[in-house]
Write a sequence for this structure.
């Protein structure tokens, strides 16, 4: 595995981005090591067990959560916001085939469990962070306490069901997937108008572009597009199905915070609320005025809903 790395100073001086950041090494899975970049705010002042982990998706990185970190820290929590491997300032395996959902789950497990020794964390999940985070919760007893799930879902297909004779990519993301695979250059920040209701300003666009000064560095974002479940034989389905068996017995608290103009997973909350016991009777919300990136479109409303749920750190 050849590993690419963004320059350490690529995001220096980025407006609004938390300063409390560092790198942690984890196994790459082939005998090498990967550096994972993360925001780690309020690491010593928060009470034990009062840790919030925020996981992003694609085409974002930890910059997505910059409006949420400060208010959650002010409520007394330690806030950890990793860049998923291949994204932001984390190391980037160089080939599309280096990335699988299982590897993303294992990379985050190695970070949170093996290296940071976390337990009973509250997870705030968005987009691919929802798939990875719900898998982490199901597969690692004791790691997760509460979950807040936004504009995402956990795709499910029973592997016992026979596959169709003709297996091909279908659905709303199939054409997008093909385009992303074949595009000569992949620039994740150009997708912002597709996932936001408000027009992103130049400063915001620069925030999403900053970790990728060279075209090769966007490989992790391009790889995520190829992991979308457009085929019935998607490799993530068996493990996702096993995760659902655990989540269908999950009684710890689960809240959904979605937005009314999300074009990616507008109904993702429905199976979460219907199938996870811990979501029953919780104050789920669909916030007005937000696209898929509700953290960008309506940060104040997002923070209000999030903090009302989390409450002050105990």
């Amino acid at each position: 595995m050849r590993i690419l790395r963004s320059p350490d100073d690529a995001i220096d001086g980025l407006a609004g981005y938390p300063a409390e950041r560092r790198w942690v090494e984890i196994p790459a899975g082939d005998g090498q090591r990967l550096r994972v970049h993360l925001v780690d705010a309020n690491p010593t002042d928060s009470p034990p067990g009062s840790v919030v982990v925020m996981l992003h998706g694609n085409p974002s990185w930890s910059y997505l959560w910059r409006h949420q970190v400060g208010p959650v820290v002010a409520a007394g929590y330690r806030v950890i916001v990793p860049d998923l491997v291949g994204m932001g300032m984390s190391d980037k395996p160089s080939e599309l085939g280096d990335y699988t959902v299982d590897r993303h789950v294992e990379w985050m497990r190695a970070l949170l469990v093996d290296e940071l020794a976390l337990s009973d964390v509250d997870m705030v999940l968005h987009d691919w962070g929802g798939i990875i985070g719900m898998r982490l919760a199901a597969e690692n007893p004791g790691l997760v306490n509460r979950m807040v799930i936004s504009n995402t879902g956990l795709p499910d297909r029973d592997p016992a069901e026979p596959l169709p004779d003709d297996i091909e990519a279908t659905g709303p993301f199939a054409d997008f997937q093909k385009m992303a695979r074949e595009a000569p250059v992949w620039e994740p920040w150009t997708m912002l108008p597709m996932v936001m209701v408000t027009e992103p300003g130049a400063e915001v666009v620069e925030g999403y572009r900053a970790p990728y000064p060279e075209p090769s560095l966007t490989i992790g974002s391009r790889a995520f597009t190829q992991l979308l479940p457009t085929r019935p034989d998607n490799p993530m389905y068996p493990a996702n199905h096993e995760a659902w068996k655990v989540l269908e017995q999950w009684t710890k608290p689960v809240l959904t915070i979605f937005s009314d103009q999300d074009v990616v997973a507008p109904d993702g909350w429905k199976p979460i609320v219907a199938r996870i016991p811990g979501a029953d009777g919780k104050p789920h919300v669909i916030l007005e005025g937000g696209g898929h990136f509700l953290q960008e479109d309506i940060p104040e409303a997002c923070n209000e809903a999030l903090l009302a749920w989390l409450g002050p750190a105990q």
Notes: The mean pLDDT is 96.
